[in-house]
Amino acid sequence: MYSIGFDIDKYLESQSKKILERIEMFENKLYLEFGGKLLNDYHAARILPGYMPDIKVKLLKTLADNAEIVIVINASNIDSNKEIGDTGIFYDGDVLRLIDELRKENLYVGSVVISHYLGQPAAVTFKEYLEGLGIKVYIIHYIPNADYPANVQLILSDKGYGNNDYVVTSRPLVVVTAPGPGSGKMATCLSQLYHENKRGVKAGYAKFETFPVWNLPIKHMVNLAYEAATADLNDVNMIDPFHLEAYNVSAVNYNRDIEVFPILNAMFTRIWGDSPYSSPTDMGVNMVGFCIDDEICARASRQEIIRRYFNTQLDYARGKVQKSALSKIELLMNNTGISPNERPPVLAALKKAALTDSPCVAIELPDGTFITGKTSSLLGASSAALLNALKHLANVSDDTLLISPKEIEPIGKLKVGYLGNENPRLQTDEVLLALAINAAANKTAELVLQQLPKLRKSEAHSSVILSHIDIAVFRQLGVNVTCEPVFQNKRLFQKN
User: Fold this and answer.
1) Cβ distance 471 to 450 under 8 Å?
2) Which of 66, 133, 142, 271 makes a 20 to 30 Å CA pair with 472?
3) What is the pTM assigned to this prediction?
4) b/e 86-98 (16+ beta carbons within 10 angstroms → b)
């Protein structure tokens, strides 16, 4: 059952006030790093029930006249065709989507920065493509791990940040964001501070980072869910030693911010003779921890850790992450006593699969009702479960035929005979299209189709790995879906 665990009105008021206070600290220009996602922050929405995925945009719109947005993408993510976990969109495609969405909200996107640049062919191609669209593109070069972040003298020189492009901006508040983590947002901000200082501009820096939540315990489930979400990045929550030394107060930060703090501290010291920050935590403007219901958010975070566990298993089975990422989440779950079976649809899907000896999908609706579907000669398990869930929501009998076999069979023959598909069964997008066509003449089909919005915030689990299409459709419908890391067949090459 869905419960509200986040006070969004309190958050909007306190977060807006905090950002305005930070802007006032600096006279000419503030680079505000937006950690996490500016748009579609579904991770936050899942572990903080009541949080709006696009709340940061609402905050930014109050500052729109003074703000411009710079989007950063890691060249390695372009080169590897890395996907955004919640959307399945590649990082480079998500940059374009972000620009479109922000422009739709009348927010000004000034440029795109490609970070960790080593001349990767895909990054070069993407840069040329963006420039062809009239979008300004700047380069932040890769600094070898042997020098970054320890070699402050090199980094704060013409051979370090001085080797990067200077990102031309025109407004006092520069919001630096990215499609996902590890994109190089902080490096972009620090590089800009270096260049601004050379031009005589007194620029500042602050960080709008939702996770980890600094004023929650390090082992709080909300913070552990962040570790699970970034397992492939080797991010680790840590007690901020600088904050503890300065104030004798424990605050939670993560390793990359703590590691880079001496660089920022040295940079501010060079600019003003003294740093305005005593710790990485001081840099932040995060008020999330003051707006949560502890019990509800901890419970939601446990479920998110399990979802991340299954999703990482899926990525590992598909060869997208290393074993270390999966091992990290397994260790996290063992240390906190979390079991995959705590995810309600898991046992329902596995039980149905065992009874029918076929792939099965179980959906837990927002009211706690479980609906299952199994693979048949005409429908995939996802399609069957989806239809059964919609029938239930419409109070339509299970026996009611919404799409006849005579309508499904020609579609299967088309897929196999003409489109080269080995699987004739209808996937979720195909079954919804067939249902929509029937809805024109069939009032019951129309009623069933109208139930789609009620699926939002449902949970689903499959006994086998689902196709990219089925996973994408579930996500578009607002259903959180996971899979057992088992392919339906033993082929080495798996079609989407």
Assistant:
1) no
2) 133
3) 0.85
4) bbebbbbbbbbeb
